[in-house]
Amino acid sequence: MNIPDNLKYTKEHEWVRLEGDVAVIGITDFAQGELGDIVFVEVETVDETLEGDEVFGTVEAVKTVSDLFMPVGGEIVEFNESVEDDPSLVNEDPYGEGWLIKIKVNRTADVEALLDAEGYKAHIG
After folding, report:
1. DSSP per residue over 85-119, as a string?
2. CB 37 within 8 Å of CB 62
3. Which of 8, 14, 34, 68 could lock onto 57 through a cystine, CB 3.0 to 4.6 A?
4. pLDDT tens for each residue of 12-67
5. Would you state the pLDDT for residue 6?
């Protein structure tokens, strides 16, 4: 299982990569593996400002539908339309082409407070 050291993680299995005051967000390799083949990703919250832990969308796999949670508060500025066209990108490349959203972060310190790779490894056991 791939857990890059340069990312931050949530207990709900989202990852965050901070690029200035914009955060790129997706689901972890562990999450996509647990979900199975992803067939649909829905994000209807672009241009909305949400708080941390609020639902920003859903991901549908063959066997289940799961909510996607904001790791930190911010305004959703972009949805990766490539995963809308080809949801399997989330399975194939969860940390690259399979990213889900970009947000303008309210407080970058909130990102630093998320789990690091070691903390996430400990969380998933």
Report:
1. H-THHHHH-TTTTT--EEEEES-HHHHHTSB-HHH
2. yes
3. 68
4. 999 999 999 999 999 999 999 999 999 999 999 999 999 999 999 999 999 899 99
5. 97
DSSP state of 52: T
> CA 103 to CA 119: how far, in whole Å?
23
For the purposes of burial, counting CB atoms within 10 Å of the CB of 41, is it exposed (0-12), middle (13-18) or buried (19 or more)?
buried
Q: What is the predicted pLDDT for the residue at 80?
A: 98
Q: Which domains does the chain have, with CATH numbers?
A: 8-109 (2.40.50.100)
Query: Among 81, 108, 122, which residue's Cα sits nearest to residue 18?
Result: 108
Q: What counts of helices (H) and strands (E) characterise the chain?
A: 5, 9
Contact 24, 102 (CB under 8 A): yes
Residue 66, strand partner residues? 59
